[in-house]
Amino acid sequence: MNPPGIAVGALGGTICMTADSADAGALPRLSAHQLVTAVPGLAGIAQIHAETLLQLPSPSLKLAHVLESLGWAERMVANGAAGIVLTQGTDTLEETAFLLDLLWTHPQPLVLTGAMRTPLTAGADGPANILAAVTCAAHGGSRGRGVAVVMNNTIHEARWVRKANSMSVETFESPVVGPAGMVLEGLPQYFRPPPRRYSQRFAVRDPSVRVALVETCLGETGEMLDAVAQAGYHGIVIAAYGAGHVSEDEAKRIEALAPRLPIVIASRTGSGTTAARTYGFAGSEMDLARRGALFSGWLGPRKARLLLWLLLATGASRDACATAFAFWERVSDTD
């Protein structure tokens, strides 16, 4: 039997960066073909189609680039690819993965990977990450699982994964639930069944929609929210204290703005859910709900921003936004 066909699309990032000298900064230069040819044993796992889509550091990726990458991946599947691998920088990898997971409707695996060390660095991790990602994308057990992030032989679901360290090769983690599996001895081994995925179908109508992410902090009174609204943003996600709390002053500004644009409250802590009925003080989750705010549940602020952007870009009403975020308030692998 011939190995399955896997399409590898390169977007840039550390995994493809080289430097002219030891004291020069690394820049994205290597093509997708160069990346895959540097991986020993890849040909025995899959028939690879490699294509360079972009050569950008991941902070320069735009939402439009993610949508274009989605279109490319869908064309590859239509042409017979059994799975897709995208390589990109790790700074925005968790966000790309989540947005793609909201939009990916195919059973074929879509796997993202990258690297924390450049190709010419001792112990470069890019080749091993590509090998593990292709291994997952080519395996039948990966079908129907949506979008995954594979780094250091560890498999993460897009909805949970986050970058947790600025420099370590062990930077990605999945708070609360842990990783979905590992690649061991050349095979992916999954720790749990495929997750219950968000099932809404999105058709982006207005990609120019803008959603702001604002973090609250000690002494914040909410003037930033007014500035964001005046700047023409269509929605706001607040990275709030603890389980979804803000100051009383900020709560008053949220109440004033909520009729004009959706405001979603997320937790800035990095792990855990927003509360629903624990606290009742001014600026608490119960108070903010009365004032018209929505809550992100288990979604962190960055992913909540992407979900709100996608909802607004498809023309969703406020009620539709509330319904969508309600899914993430209760979602778990046991549902």
UniProtKB/TrEMBL annotation:
Q: Which residues form the active site?
A: T14 (o-isoaspartyl threonine intermediate)
What are the GO BP annotations of this UniProt entry? asparagine metabolic process
Which Gene3D superfamilies has this protein been placed in?
A: 3.40.50.40, L-asparaginase, N-terminal domain
Which parts of the sequence belong to the Asparaginase/glutaminase C-terminal domain? 210-325
Per UniProt, substrate binds at: S58, T90, D91
| Signal peptide residues on this chain, from the entry's feature table | none
Domain L-asparaginase N-terminal spans what residues?
6-193
Q: Which residues form a coiled coil?
A: none
| Pfam families recorded | Asparaginase (PF00710), Asparaginase_C (PF17763)
State the UniProt keywords alphabetically.
Answer: Hydrolase, Plasmid
Q: Which InterPro entries match?
A: AsnASE_II, Asp/glu_Ase-like_sf, Asparaginase/glutaminase-like, Asparaginase_C, L-asparaginase_C, L-asparaginase_N, L-asparaginase_N_sf
Q: Which GO terms describe its molecular function?
A: asparaginase activity
Question: In which family does this protein belong, per the annotation?
Answer: Belongs to the asparaginase 1 family.
Q: What is this protein called?
A: L-asparaginase
